[in-house]
Amino acid sequence: MRGGWLSEGGGGRSERGNGDWARGGVGEGGVRGMIVAHDSGRPVATLQFPYQATDRTFVAQRLDGECLSNGRYMHCTFVNLSFKETTLTTFEFLNCVFIDCYFRRATLKNCSIVGCKFIDCELPKLALITCDFRYTRFRRCQVAFESMRHTLPVEPNLRRDTCRDLASQSSKLGLGADARRYRMEELSAREQHLRNAVLGESEWYTSHYRGFARLRALLRLTGSYTNKYLFGYGESLSILLRNSFLAALGVFPFIYYLVPSGFDYQNGAEHSYGECVLLSISTMFPIPDLSSISTGRWYTHVIASVEAACGVMVFAFIAAYVFRWSVRQ
Description:
6-stranded parallel sheet; Helix Hairpins; 3 domains; 14 strands; alpha/beta
């Protein structure tokens, strides 16, 4: 879809490199094909003053460098329009679709873009000032995190959904840094949403999260915090390594040290903290015959099994992290 469906009318992407790809005309057959493919039945119109329309399709216009204000478009489709360095002030777009539009260095001030879709659009260096992007989705395009971060929805559940969508699109486009920042913002918004649900921060949360629903939110929040502080969501290698060494050198050796009767001792070995550390290392990381003591009771077998499972999880997270890093590179 990215290169083919606009080519029939002669306006397509062949001139995109110069920012003039929306300047060419689109033939009648190309326009008809686009309307049929996207929102059939909406008459074609021209985007012009007083900048208000409902159920209309706007095709192949160049609005580069213009300053437009006080517009309202509902249930409209915008196809192959160029808004290069255009300033839109106090515009409202409700349930609109933007297809193959060009927004390089455009500025949007006090704009409401609610329930809209951006498909195959170019949005580099977009300036957003006090805008509303609730329920808006992106396909095969994205807005840089730095441009979007102060315009994300205030409601944590809506911010979570928007960031999840933009993280997915950024990842598909190979923009690893933006994808990671959107993912972290999504996780933060998700935790805030669950926290509000558990505490009943508003009437909406109180009415939507009662009884078992609130308990389920608490369990999810606990799991998220566990993932965050123990494994860094699988996104922070330093947190993962730090906690692994703390567990192998501190937590599990201390537990072993508290139960001396649960071990078998070889070659006259004594129960010491050093031997417990060596046993913990050989359990967390598969290094055989490192310690002179071994588990000999059911409860020490259980503790060692838990530590071994933690070691497997650590290696799995590290492998996943390295794989994602290599893919991004």
